[in-house]
Amino acid sequence: MTPRAIVLVLALAAGGLVLWRIAPATTTRVQAEPPGPYAGRANPRSADASAVTAGAALFQENCTSCHGDHADGHGVAASGLTPPPADLRGSTVVPEHSDAYLFYRLSEGKAGTAMPAFRGTLDEQERWALVTYLRSLHPSSSHQPAP
Ligand code: HEC
User: Fold this and answer.
1) Which of 4, 40, 65, 84 pairs with 113 at a CA distance of 20 to 30 A?
2) Nearest CA residue ID for atom 22, ligand 1
3) Cβ of 129 below 6 Å from ligand 1
4) Whole-angstrom distance, CA of residue 23 vs CA of residue 89
5) Using a 6 Å cutoff on CB, does residue 115 contact ligand 1?
6) CA dihedral 142, 27, 70, 45 (to 10 degrees)
7) Where are the domains of the chain?
8) Are 62 and 126 spatial neighbours (Cβ–Cβ below 8 Å)?
9) 127 lines ligand 1 (CB under 6 A)
């Protein structure tokens, strides 16, 4: 191999390494739309002020053990969980997702994480109230998930 060829091979290897490092970050994309029957569903309680209060109470009962009293991800059961429970107040998780997506997540849970499915324990009205409550934590961001 000529010195030039060696330089070329090294440059290609370095480029490959860089791409390999970047790739995982680009595959963990925000999923804007939930699958199947959850796609495109509108929150029937989005304008319902009582849903915020009801959702807050449901959150205290069902979610704070992991997500914390302040929905910041620091619940008593959070330590040791990988990935840790989402910070639903201080992060972009809620603003970046549609109501339909949030409803889907708390209905079906999240595979590969400790996030449980609440389809069997909370009825639809309760799950939508939770979505309304989560949205109320982000008053300045009207949810406009990327199409
Ligand atoms: C046993 C612990 C636990 C409980 C209880 C729990 N969660 Fe979670 N939750 C998690 C974990 C772990 C994640 C995953 C975070 C991640 O993917 O990075 C998560 C993620 C989420 C997400 C983000 C989903 C996403 O796709 O990023 C939302 C929204 C959420 N939880 C809402 C709730 C609500 C509402 C409740 C109560 C009805 C609840 N969680 C109860 C552990 C829990």
Assistant:
1) 40
2) 86
3) no
4) 28
5) yes
6) 40
7) 1-30, 36-136
8) no
9) no
Query: Tens digit of pLDDT for each residue in 13-25?
Result: 776 655 555 554 4
- Whether 64 lines ligand 1, by a CB cut-off of 6 Å, is no
CA distance readout (Å), 98 to 14, 21, 68, 103? 39, 30, 22, 9
Question: What one-letter code names the amino acid at 4?
Answer: R
The CATH class of 36-136 is mainly alpha
Q: Which of 112, 115, 114, 90 is nearest to 102 (CA)?
A: 115
* Nearest Cα residue to atom 11 of ligand 1: 85
Amino acid 16 reads: G
pLDDT digits (tens, 9 = 90+) for 62-95: 999 999 999 999 999 999 999 999 999 999 999 9
